[in-house]
Design brief:
The chain is an alpha/beta fold. The protein is built from 13 helices and 5 strands.
Length: 296
């Protein structure tokens, strides 16, 4: 019995020190990656997950890339089916617009290579995103943005609404990518701020639908779970109200306000603290003043 206890104790000590060694080594590796590539925004958990395993979404993405045509444009690799080829000039034109708009809002940022997958079939895109519906999505973990498109012939004719919808989703999803390049840690930023900025760049020249009769407190639009739940609340539109909050901030303080808030939040790691320091407003106060702004 005594011998068994000694063996068990030895194994326990071995496992414990092995765990410490692996943990320490992985953290050292993460620090090296962070120092050598400071503009790649992955948390420790995300970085280790990317090293240890490849997600099913990542594998599916690579399968799609292998079967699609590829067109490289600056730091963006566009993967598409043959049917989409005629839309490449408008796509590049829209990406150029996205480059200009995001740089105006965020300043110059590191442009990490990004994959841009284009789907004609929305169900195929849903298999990759894991979410039903939606015109596009961005994944920081898999380093990709994706859209699906409709009405190709009308887009080629530059019909207003189809063209606006096509360009809008590209602008929106690219803005999420640019936002992630600017942010040191996306988890610092509430969803209303991230989505509001993307909506603003998407609809800056067109405007957004007016918010509905009810407005959700921005404190309740912080997490992905809150955002998803809010989409099903009647008489509200979390995208529109986030757009108008960002528009209010820019109209009130100038376009540089977004860059100032993010520069501060990247340092403090506290969005609400930085927001208050830069704008003089609490998030609760924003709920009231943005409503007054758009209703006037």
């Amino acid at each position: 019995m005594k011998k068994i206890k000694i063996v068990f104790l030895s194994l326990t000590i071995f496992v414990f020190f092995s765990f410490i060694l692996v943990l320490g080594g992985s953290f050292f590796l993460y620090k090296v990656i962070a120092e050598e590539q400071p503009d790649i925004n992955l948390t420790y958990i995300e970085a280790m997950a990317a090293i240890v395993t490849r997600s099913p979404e990542g594998k599916l993405k690579n399968q799609i890339k292998d079967s699609y045509l590829q067109e490289d444009y600056k730091h963006v690799s566009i993967y598409h089916e043959k049917d989409f080829s005629e839309l490449l000039p408008i796509t590049k034109e829209t990406l150029d617009l996205a480059f200009v708009k995001t740089e105006a809002l965020f300043g110059k940022t590191y442009q990490e290579p990004i994959d841009f997958l284009v789907f004609q079939d929305s169900e195929e895109m849903s298999k990759l995103s894991g979410v039903e519906g939606g015109a596009g999505f961005y994944s920081a973990e898999d380093k990709l943005l994706a859209i699906h498109y409709l009405d190709k012939d009308l887009i080629l004719k530059r019909e207003n609404y189809p063209l606006y919808m096509f360009q809008g989703v590209i602008l929106h999803e690219y803005t999420h990518y640019a936002f992630a390049q600017k942010a040191k840690d996306l988890n610092i930023y509430p969803l209303w701020f991230q989505e509001g900025v993307a909506e603003y760049i998407e609809a800056e020249d067109q405007g957004a639908p007016l918010p509905e009769s009810e407005s959700i407190p921005f404190a309740h639009l912080t997490t992905y779970e809150q955002w998803a739940e809010a989409r099903y609340i009647e008489s509200t539109n979390n995208y529109a109200q986030s757009y108008y909050a960002i528009e209010f901030l820019i109209e009130e303080y100038g376009e540089e306000i977004i860059n100032k808030i993010m520069n501060s939040a990247n340092k403090t790691k506290d969005f609400e603290k930085s927001f208050k320091e830069i704008t003089g407003l609490t998030i609760n106060e924003l709920d009231k003043v943005y409503l007054k702004f758009y209703r006037e």
